[in-house]
């Protein structure tokens, strides 16, 4: 329901008022055209624009070595989640994600890590793995455990 005294754009009252005053429309269009032309003139000085730094997407793989005799891989990052499989000590796994918050398990506090072990993907508790920034370092550490 329209409020008295306020024109409704759905009834075409604004369009009708522009038709009655074409000079307003012409001035508006001319002012919009002048703005880009004036800002591109060669005589003015250029202002330096400082942009915030853009974070760079890092595609660096992190590796880990299982340091528990038999590590459970779970469906979700929870001790109550079903066990998918087990990994033996010394196995090198690729870390593909990390939980947002820490968790406590057997008096230890750590993150949960989503790992890929020969195509098997699941979650392991961080206390039972040793993390490395390269596969070669993980392989070297793995040899000391076996």
Determine the number of helices (DSSP H or I, runs of at least 4 residues): 3
Order of helix and strand elements from N to C terminus? HHEEEEEEEEEH
The domain tally reads 2
From the alpha carbons, calculate the radius of gyration and give it in angstroms.
32 Å
End-to-end separation in angstroms reads 80 Å
CATH architecture of the largest domain, by name, is: Roll
- Identify the CATH homologous superfamily of the largest domain: SH3 Domains
Please give the structural blueprint:
Layout (H helix, E strand, L loop, with lengths): L12 H8 L1 H18 L22 E5 L3 E5 L8 E6 L3 E7 L4 E3 L2 E3 L1 E6 L2 E6 L3 E4 L2 H11 L1
Antiparallel strand pairs: 1-4, 1-9, 2-3, 4-7, 5-6, 7-8
């Amino acid at each position: 329901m329209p409020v008295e005294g306020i024109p409704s754009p759905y009834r075409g009252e604004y369009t009708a008022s522009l038709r009655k005053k074409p000079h307003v429309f012409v001035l508006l269009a001319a002012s919009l055209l002048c703005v880009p032309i004036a800002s591109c003139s060669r005589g003015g000085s250029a202002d330096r624009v400082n942009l915030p730094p853009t974070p760079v997407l890092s595609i660096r793989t992190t590796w880990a070595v299982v340091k528990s005799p038999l590590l459970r891989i779970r469906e979700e990052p929870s001790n109550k989640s079903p066990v998918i499989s087990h990994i033996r000590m010394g196995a090198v796994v690729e870390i593909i994600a990390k939980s947002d918050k820490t968790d406590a398990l057997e008096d230890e506090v750590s993150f949960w890590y989503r790992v890929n072990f020969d195509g098997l993907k699941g979650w392991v508790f961080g206390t039972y793995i040793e993390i490395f920034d390269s596969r070669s370092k993980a392989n070297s550490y793995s040899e000391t455990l076996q």
